[in-house]
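Progress against Task 2.4 (sequence-to-structure conversion) is shown through the following example record, which the project officer requested during the mid-term review.
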Amino acid sequence: MTRHRFGSSVPAAMFFVLFLFAGLAASAAPAGTPCEKLKDLTIPNVTITAATSVAAGQFTPPGPGSERPMQVPAFCRVEGEANPTSDSSIKFEVWIPPSDSWNGKFEGVGNGGYQGNISYPAMATVLRLGYATASTDTGHTGDDLRFGENHPEKVVDWAYRAIHVTAEASKLIVRDSEGRFPDHSYFDGCSTGGHQALSEAQRFPDDYDGIIAGDPAYDRIRQTAAYLWSWIATHDDNGVSLLTNAKMKFVTKSAVAACDAIDGVKDGVIGDPRRCHFDPSSLACKGAETDTCLTTAQVNALKKVYRGLHNPRTGEEIFPGWSVGSEGFGDSPAMGWGAYILNPKEPMRIDVYRLFLFNDPNWDWHTVDFDRDVAYADQKLGFMSAVNYDLTGFKARGGKLVMYTGWADPVAAPLDVLKYYENVMKKMGGVEKTQEFYRFFMVPGMGHCGGGPGPNAFDMQTVLESWVEHGKAPEKVIASHSTNGQTDRTRPLCPYPQAAKWSGTGSTDVAANFTCVNPGSASVPTSGSVQTSQPILAQKK
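Structure tokens generated for the chain above:
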């Protein structure tokens, strides 16, 4: 028998203490698995297809060449495939920094549209900040909805399952790579990514500690019906759009002129379109039609889109209309109704009904019944949406949710996003109880996930982390607007139902001269007249 070097006189209690300290030392400095060895990990229903060390420098994502090379720090690239059902093939990647540069956190990033691709640029951005990160192709390739024709499980994968299984597998992979689980896990997405964010909070509240939901297109079934309604309203019997990009820019310019100063600041931005009583009839042509007037058919088309989709039998609202001020701004038709309402040759995303609902590639959308068919779609495809207003599970586990949307969003109707938050407030017991874990920021003048004439750049990640990790709830978020790379305006974003109100003195291009107030006091400032905004850059000259 080999004797312990301390001799036989060492008390048994000392051995226990030495063993305990050895265990603590091991847990304090966990040994991670080398990158290439992660290929050997075993996870139920998951196959690790590759694990590769990537050197710092330029990284060119795989694909048809649409992705540009990206500058990245060194990382371990893990590629995997999840097969939760026999018809599932969910590709995902996990990027993990070296232990000495890891910030101890994990962040999942969202997708856009119905795209079946991994969000490499978003992953690179997060990786450069020190996070381990993951993204998925949601179970298919490309943006063509034919992926779900006669493949109902693939539709479920896209709708919510792929994000969940990616989160679960990724955190296990990070644990093996770094030797411990992340201290905190976050999710950030806009548009479809915002839909994914809300779905995670509703369906899988334990996946993430903090979630950012930007411009969430969360009510897929009714949003698709609203695209159909709006397309019919804005096209003639031959499928030709009644409205041009030039007309849309004119309408937006006219609406802003009519409603800009309602919030006490004349800055080229409609603060709250709900307070704008712009009537497109005021733009009716007095003679020959030009780009600066509207025909009767065009006026009626605008009114229908503003009003939104209603049940033809009951009159009940199915989906809200798009906001005044979202029609068209800038030089791109994508910054307005062009991309999703006016320019498509047929209603946007109509294959959701054609292929997913009716399983008939020959279904004629002209035969749609907005009463019967929308109800049927809600019943059969309700899982595609994230419309549960009860977030008790997410709140109970200590989760924090930050949501934002642009008031001038032409894709995800801002009034629909607002409706979701107001319904959550009703379900969760009012404003104060909801704001204990969930805050919503309306962004005046911002388009879909960015752009537009209003301040549209802001850092929700830092705000969310401060809330999750330090208990500091966001009372405001500073947003900025830039021209040619130079900041020319800052403005606070306020947690709904509050809105930013100018103090009445100082530049209206400086956030410090605004406070967040409740709606009842968000009127035109009494300490001075409406001020015309002067850009910060002009003031510095």
